[in-house]
Specification:
Length: 855
């Protein structure tokens, strides 16, 4: 008893402290801490937590030492006799030599329907954002705007640490989050985002989840760029700046970013909602005065801009749900110049019109979205309130065959509220309620000064849409049956006036029209799961009544559009999907427009003066294959569609003016599209390779100068890319695309016109204690375009960048773009009834100095 008492009463000493990195003073997580006695025997062992701290108790510290070690850092030995507790241990960076041991982490791992990519094994020295690394991962494609596809299909969710903060605006994350803050990318196949539908409704889409490193969790992370320099075309100062802040905490997430530049980077796409469906209000701009663009050439070479973007996105976890707020504002001022020759193919002889265009487009966009969501296994509730206010002012001066000046004002006001609730009963029964209400106003003003005459056109276009529905579904032994019913209402008013119509064009110049409808519908749906096969049948039927306020005769219609799909996944490596559908649908109500509308200084449109319906059919087949252990991903899809319209577009020239209208004649069209891709990891050089191709064939019919024109367009393309680090001091990223297109009209074949694009990035990373802080990047682009048969235009553009990494937080760089100072670019395109030759101005030589800061 006395011995027990003495042991209990013995004093215990708390040995504690923190382990930090020497340069940044950042805490190190997972460092090994060993307490040894005077004889070197291990007494205690632990590892540091997420804050770099450690702690344990021992009865004696005299003569004891702390051995602290961690990969990539020199081992530290601390004598406890000579320090004061708690102790701070500073770790110095050092290479860790492994003798006769090879350590290899799997670049890609698979567990069930989840594929995990290790970010560090795909990242290269020149990468900045997680989007740059995602582009290197086989099976994943990322556009410049940040949109992600997996195996040729759009993803349906983008998560950060399991939370959907950004919704469809995840481009802000892919182009903003520093890849060094992300440890792994999880790709979840067959992802059902609504838990209440799990096991009841099948999904063939995939989702992305970013797993952050510990240093990026439960704290704010920041990084920013500030750059300035000089440009030779346009001549003057240039700038580029960005500030990105992110917080990922247990109950709160936020991403806020600010960007501004005039170096040709388009910021407007950064806030695009990739999950957004088309607006049910259905309004579209009639006026089409736009600045000249340049196809087949990178936007950074052709965009003369002054741009700014501010975006803040927050998520709060409240009780059983989440509240999200997304607010964005963007500004773009763009100028462009072009010299064009347009040739119209006519039976009476070709008509040639020359233009020299010089314009400016200034746009503002303000949007907000506020979401409350509960996503549980028995309940799903989502209410989304969104609004968009856009202003777009365009001025365009034209010299040549028909000199003029144009100015356009295109504001757009939109507000919508969408509510959805799903309740699950007894595990297999679902009840759903939905309510969707949208309102939009799209006024348009066009002013044209032409040969001393002024033409002024104003368009008032307003619409309101409502959709209320309820549904019931139940599931028994792999069979799910559901029935949705609801009503839709639509009110739209169109008012256009053009007081001074050119004398050459006969007809009405005003449109006063109300387009309203009321629809009652029912959608039975049948799903059947058997082993690894899913069958889905949809059979929507609706009754609609249309009224036009005496402008047209009122009418009632019945529509039926069944579709069927089958998905087969015999194993985790292979999947195949077949789809087909047919249906009858109403025409686009924007086409009901008996009078003329001026779309630009020499183009007019006249719609139909009656109500039409169309029919269509479509079939498609797709497959996907993956072998994650070997790093192989492949996909392909073939789609064929047919359309049958009771009206046909007609083109007519009146002097220098061109008029597009519709005539009462059947028009059948069809389109075939096939594309595929194969990707493979190249582990020997920490890289990957991809080969892709596509083919398209389309048939359409229209009238030109009262003559029928049957046209067939053909096009195909092949491409390949490869990236990696074949040597420790050398990184490469190469991409090539080759395309060919042809247009046939009434059996007469035009020449095939080809185009080729090559791009190469070489990153030289010198080795050695001093030179390791330097990088030298060389980027080149080559464009070879066929202007006419046998006549080619070659453009070679070269950039270079020198980078000095002062430390892990500060980076300095100098970049010289378009070293050869290429200033123009020419090309030719063909449409059904015309050819278009153009010479465009490019951004000239540009020197930019940048400092980059990271926390």
């Amino acid at each position: 008893m006395l011995a027990s008492f003495n042991a209990t009463a013995q004093i215990q000493i708390n040995v504690s402290g923190i382990v930090v990195e020497e340069d940044s003073n950042e805490p190190l997580t997972g460092a090994s801490v060993i307490l040894r006695n005077v004889n070197g025997r291990i007494l205690k062992y632990t590892t540091t937590d997420v804050n770099g701290r450690f702690s344990f108790f021992t009865p004696e510290i005299n003569g004891c030492t702390l051995d602290v070690s961690m990969m990539s850092f020199a081992k530290q030995i601390v004598k406890l006799d000579s320090v004061q507790l708690p102790v701070t241990i500073v770790m110095e960076a050092s290479a860790t030599m492994l003798k006769e041991v090879a350590v290899k982490a799997d670049r890609i791992r698979e567990q069930g329907d989840t594929i995990t990519y290790t970010v560090g094994s795909f990242a290269q020295a020149q990468d900045r954002s997680i989007g740059d690394v995602l582009k290197r991962m086989p099976g994943i494609d990322v556009s410049n705007s940040g949109k992600i596809q997996y195996q040729g299909e759009d993803i349906n969710k983008f998560y950060i640490e399991g939370s959907d903060m950004l919704g469809g605006k995840y481009g802000i994350a892919t182009n903003g989050i520093n890849h060094d803050d992300v440890g792994a990318v999880e790709l979840m196949e067959n992802h059902q985002p609504m838990q209440v539908l799990s096991g009841i409704s099948f999904s063939d889409k995939a989702a992305i989840n970013l797993k952050l490193k510990n240093k990026a969790k439960a704290t704010w992370t920041f990084h920013g760029d500030a750059g300035g320099g000089y440009s030779w075309q346009p001549e003057g100062a240039v700038w580029d700046g960005e500030l990105f802040a992110m917080a990922v905490m247990p109950g709160f997430q936020n991403i806020t970013t600010f960007k501004t530049n005039n170096i040709g980077e388009d910021l407007s796409a950064s806030a695009t909602d990739f999950f957004a469906s088309s607006r049910a209000t259905g309004l579209s701009q009639y006026v089409s005065v736009s600045l000249p663009g340049v196809p087949n050439l990178s936007r950074k070479r052709t965009l003369f801009n002054r741009s700014a973007l501010v975006s803040t996105n927050s998520l709060w976890k409240v009780k059983n749900g989440e509240f999200k707020a997304q607010i964005d504002y963007s500004f773009n001022r763009v100028t462009a110049q072009a010299a064009n020759i347009t040739t119209y193919f006519l039976e009476s002889g070709d008509r040639v019109i020359s233009e020299n265009r010089d314009g400016r487009d200034r746009s503002h966009s303000l949007s907000g979205k506020f979401i409350y969501e509960v996503n549980q296994k028995t309940t799903f509730i989502n209410n989304t309130l969104s609004t968009n206010i856009d202003w777009d002012d365009v001025t365009l001066g034209v010299t040549g065959s028909l000199p003029n000046d144009q100015s356009v004002k295109l504001p757009d006001y939109y507000v919508a509220n969408k509510f959805k609730m799903i309740k699950r009963f007894n595990g297999k029964h679902l009840v759903t309620f939905q309510s969707n209400n949208e309102w939009e106003s799209l006024p348009q003003t066009l002013n044209v000064s032409l040969e001393g005459n002024n033409l002024n056109q104003h368009i008032g276009d307003h619409a309101f849409y409502t959709h209320e529905s309820a549904a019931y579904a139940f599931s028994i032994k792999g069979i799910t049956v559901s029935l949705e019913g609801g009503v839709k209402g639509y009110l739209r008013s169109l008012n256009t006036e053009l007081p001074d119509m050119p004398e050459e064009i006969p007809g009405e110049t005003e449109n006063v029209l109300n387009t309203n409808y009321f629809t009652v519908y029912a959608t039975p749906k049948f799903e059947y799961w058997v082993k690894r096969v899913n069958f889905t049948l949809n059979a929507p039927v609706s009754f609609a009544h249309y009224t036009f306020d005496k402008a047209l005769a009122n009418r009632s219609e019945v529509y039926f559009s069944p579709s069927i799909s089958m998905n087969w996944k015999p194993n985790n490596r292979f999947s195949m999907t077949l789809r087909g559908g047919t249906g009858r649908s109403p025409m686009n109500l924007n086409m009901i427009q008996p009078g003329y509308i001026m779309t630009n200084y020499r183009t007019f449109k006249q719609g139909v003066d009656d109500f039409y319906n169309s029919t269509s059919q479509n079939v498609s087949a797709s497959f996907a294959y993956k072998h994650t252990r070997r790093g192989v991903f492949a996909n392909a899809i073939v789609m064929q569609s047919w359309s049958h319209l009771p009206y046909t577009m007609e083109q007519q020239l009146y002097g220098d003016y061109i008029v597009y209208s519709y005539t009462d004649a059947k028009s059948d069209g069809q389109n075939l599209l096939a594309m595929g891709s194969v990707g493979k990891t190249l582990d020997f050089m920490r890289g990957s390779a991809n080969v892709n191709g596509s083919f398209n064939r389309g048939e359409s019919h229209l009238f030109s100068e009262n003559n029928a024109v049957n046209s067939t367009s053909l096009g195909w393309s092949v491409g390949a890319k490869i990236n990696g680090t074949p040597l420790r001091w050398l990184g490469i990223d190469y991409h090539i695309d080759f395309s060919n297109s042809q247009l046939q009209m009434n059996g007469v074949k035009n020449s095939w016109l080809s185009g080729m694009e090559n791009s190469l990035l070489v990153n030289i990373m010198p080795q050695g204690q001093y030179w390791a802080k330097w990088e030298w990047r060389i980027m080149g682009e080559h464009y070879r375009n066929e202007l006419t048969a046998g006549t080619y235009k070659n453009v070679f553009l070269l950039d270079t960048k020198l980078v000095y990494k002062l430390n892990k937080r500060i980076e300095l760089s100098a970049m010289l773009n378009n070293i050869f100072n290429q200033r123009t670019y020419s090309y030719t395109t063909y449409s059904q009834l015309s050819s278009f030759e153009s010479q465009r101005w490019l951004r000239g030589r540009e020197l930019l100095f940048t400092i980059t800061l990271r926390k």
